[in-house]
Design goal:
By secondary structure, the chain is mainly alpha-helical. The protein is built from two helices and no strands. α1 packs antiparallel against α2.
Length: about 80
């Protein structure tokens, strides 16, 4: 997740810089706004990515637990 967040943030930096430059902002202003935007994007992606992984992992663990419970109850009834 960290590598993906870095790649997206760096890409976002250049996109923000080009958009700022195309809008006629000064170079220094573009650089500062792009850097702040890239850092914000990185932080957002790290937290959102962490939450997404937790949600997916929790869903998988719950699914496995349910399947295990079904197998256990079937085995207890003698229906293998």
């Amino acid at each position: 997740m960290k590598r993906l967040a870095v790649v997206i943030s760096v890409s976002g930096f250049f996109i923000l810089a080009v958009v700022g430059w195309a809008c006629g902002l000064q170079t220094h202003t573009c650089a500062i706004k792009s850097a702040v935007g890239a850092v914000g994007l990185y932080v957002l992606l790290r937290f959102a990515g962490g939450f997404a992984v937790d949600i997916v992992a929790g869903g998988i663990a719950e699914s496995v637990r349910r399947q295990q419970n079904v197998k256990d109850s079937t085995f207890e009834r003698g229906n293998q």
